[in-house]
């Protein structure tokens, strides 16, 4: 019985081909996974239902401080992306900084320039978000009748928390309340709630956004310990947002202890020097007074009281000329020139 001949070369060729195919498939899979991991996940993307009035382009602006949230110019727009016919858009975040920053995503009407902002109402054309170069953020709106009046943002938890704070701050129901007293009471409750969020939020921008809108300037003295504790908690934060906040608080004098100690030492030394000088003069004056005779000391005491020569002569029943002679002797021994010097000498 003849056995069939086995073509070794053919088998080796087929095995080699299969190996190359397996390597190719493996590489394609790895590349696809890497692309998905490093590309699509580093993005701000979503699906928007757009009315015909909107230009199908989304713009991303960097917001360096909370005071710039509602400013608009072409200079702060850092990226844009087309919205396709199905409503999808995609913005890569790879060019963003590693640190979280605040950004604004907006669209403009077809008849308006790119740098246009609509604030409030159902035609409000922007939202705010927190992002960094590794962020993966998804945004969807509810209906084309209102662009961002009702929207969802997912993928990065700080944005969900930021939206919660933003919704509290921009609650339309508050502006509709009638009665100043009632509105003031509700606002006070909201400010307290925002301070609580600021105290408990783990993300610095979310926390700071809540605090900034809690009217902290007007309640600083009332809640001074809270604000001092808050600044201490976030003292390592060196972002433009926190530096802006710190500039609004009364500057803490970091050298206050040094100046208190220095001032205390200065005044202690000053008091010591003054006391030494006065004491030295008093000792000198006492030594000089001992040079006076008994009668001259008696006359000296009356001179201190401001008595005239005549009054002194009557007091001691001596002549005026004798008094003048004693006074002259007193002047010489005490090295003074007038009665005024006697008063000064006595006050030492």
UniProtKB/TrEMBL annotation:
Transmembrane segments: 258-278
Pfam family, one: GerE
GO MF annotation terms: DNA binding
HTH luxR-type domain location: 285-348
Record key words, sorted: DNA-binding, Membrane, Transcription, Transcription regulation, Transmembrane, Transmembrane helix
GO terms for biological process, alphabetical: regulation of DNA-templated transcription
InterPro entries for this protein: Tscrpt_reg_LuxR_C
Domain of life: Bacteria
The protein's name in its UniProt record: Helix-turn-helix transcriptional regulator
Organism for this UniProt entry: Winogradskyella luteola
């Amino acid at each position: 019985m003849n056995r069939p001949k086995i073509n070794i070369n053919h088998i080796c060729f087929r095995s080699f081909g299969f190996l190359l195919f397996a390597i190719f498939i493996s590489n394609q899979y790895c590349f696809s996974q890497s692309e998905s991991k490093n590309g699509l996940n580093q993005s701000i993307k979503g699906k928007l239902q757009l009315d015909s009035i909107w230009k199908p382009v989304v713009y991303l602006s960097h917001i360096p401080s909370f005071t710039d949230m509602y400013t608009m110019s072409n200079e702060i727009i850092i990226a844009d992306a087309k919205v396709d016919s199905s409503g999808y858009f995609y913005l890569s975040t790879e060019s963003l900084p590693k640190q979280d920053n605040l950004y604004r995503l907006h669209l403009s009407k077809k008849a308006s320039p790119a740098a246009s902002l609509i604030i409030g109402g159902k035609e409000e054309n922007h939202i705010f978000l927190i992002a960094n170069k590794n962020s993966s953020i998804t945004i969807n709106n509810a209906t084309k009748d209102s662009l961002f009046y009702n929207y969802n943002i997912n993928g990065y938890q700080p944005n969900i928390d930021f939206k919660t704070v933003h919704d509290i701050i921009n609650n339309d129901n508050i502006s509709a309340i009638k009665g100043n007293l009632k509105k003031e009471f509700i606002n006070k409750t909201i400010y307290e709630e925002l301070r609580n969020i600021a105290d408990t939020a783990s993300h610095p921008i979310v926390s700071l956004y809540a605090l900034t809108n809690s009217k902290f300037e007007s309640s600083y003295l009332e809640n001074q310990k809270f604000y001092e504790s808050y600044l201490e908690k976030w003292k390592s934060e060196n972002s433009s947002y926190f530096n802006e906040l710190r500039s609004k608080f009364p500057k803490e004098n970091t050298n206050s202890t040094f100046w208190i100690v220095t001032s205390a030492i200065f005044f202690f030394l000053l008091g010591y020097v003054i006391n030494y000088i006065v004491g030295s003069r008093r000792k000198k004056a006492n030594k000089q007074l001992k040079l006076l005779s008994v009668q001259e000391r008696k006359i000296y005491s009356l001179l201190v009281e401001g008595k005239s020569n005549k009054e002194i002569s009557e007091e001691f029943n001596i002549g005026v000329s004798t008094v003048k002679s004693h006074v002259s002797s007193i002047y010489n021994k005490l090295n003074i020139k007038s009665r005024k010097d006697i008063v000064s000498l006595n006050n030492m």
